[in-house]
Amino acid sequence: MRPIRDIAVVAFAQSDHRRTSDELSEVEMLLPVLHEVLDRTGLKAGDIGFTCSGSTDYLAGRAFSFTMALDGVGAWPPISESHVEMDGAWALYEAWTKLLTGDADTALVYSYGKSSPGSVRDVLTRQLDPYYVAPLWPDSVALAALQARALMDAGETDEPELATVAARSRASAATNPHAQLRGSVPHGDYLVRPLRTGDCPPIGDGAAAVILAAGDRARELCEHPAWIRGIDHRIEAHSLGVRDLTDSPSTRLAAERAGVFDRPVDTAELHAPFTSQEIVLRKALRLGDDVRVNPSGGALAANPIMAAGLIRVGEAAARVHRGESDRALAHATSGPCLQQNLVAVLEGDAR
């Protein structure tokens, strides 16, 4: 969808992503991030026109767990608020549509996830078809390994190329103070063939937040706003057996609708939790070697469930804010083997 009103990311903040944060509740983990993102704009909580969050009750193990996080936002006096049981990138999409209507000029979007208390590989099986696939308990790594094997059998990649993707991502993360894994990390042993531990994302806890603003309000709040020139999301068939796991038509369609192919991008923040998925996304998004992919390290350096996609949008926007990118692509995914995909294009003001 192409915007009918200019809307920009004007601020981004994230936590330091850690393997465990047992000493912190979700609210305690989130609160510093909310304070930081508001401080970047000088706004107070009462200045925000709309608030939207993304999280999952399955990680917390209790229903309506997101209501506790509102303690960190401050829900009194009453605020205009919504929540999606998805990655925060989809909460950003909802906030973007809210601003398009003109009902608000600013929006706070945040997401968080504590993966450390349980088994993420088992929890994510609840995304599968509940009748035919979920009862078999194929975990997320095993499904990603099926996708990697399909790519190799099709001649699309091999193990050395996957190792190169992992090494590049962790090397890029060396300059990211928030990353969970940084610098030289051993590629490790096989976890599920053909994927080694280095091909898979770390398990950890983290949170992120962005502020959106429309029109002149965005220019008042940020010297170099990251304008959302297009954003779209699409979904593949639920059944893995009817999909070609070596391709991602939903990503390609979302990119086309968002305007990615209109002009070249210089940066791409891809939500690719597994190295093999970066191969699929690069092809679907037609990214050449001249595009810098995941300069933050990507999900291979830090993958807080329900926040990693929003972080991709935030990292792309931050590069525009700093003048390091003129036209950046941000991608988020959810579900097994890149089932659901969101693509956004962010640009700076013409220089």
Question: Brief description of this entry?
Answer:
By secondary structure, the protein is an alpha/beta fold. The chain is built from 11 helices and 12 strands. It is globular, with a radius of gyration of 19 Å.
List keywords for this structure.
351 residues, two-stranded antiparallel ribbon, 11 helices
Folded structure, characterized:
By secondary structure, the protein is α/β, with parallel strands linked by helices. The chain has a 10-stranded mixed β-sheet with strand order 3-2-4-7-1-8-12-11-9-10, sandwiched between helices. A two-stranded antiparallel sheet has the order 5-6. Helix 10 links the parallel strand 9 and strand 10. The longest helix has 14 residues.
- Alpha-carbon distance between the two ends: 25 Å
How many H/I helical runs?
A: 11
Largest sheet: 10 strands, mixed
Number of strands: 12
Structural class: alpha/beta
Q: Topology of this protein?
A:
Blueprint: E1 7-14, H1 26-39, E2 50-54, H2 57-60, H3 66-73, E3 81-84, H4 88-100, E4 106-114, H5 120-123, H6 140-153, H7 159-172, E5 190-192, E6 195-196, E7 205-214, H8 215-221, E8 226-235, H9 249-258, E9 267-269, H10 275-285, E10 292-293, H11 308-321, E11 327-334, E12 340-347
Helix pairs in contact: 1-3, 4-11, 7-10
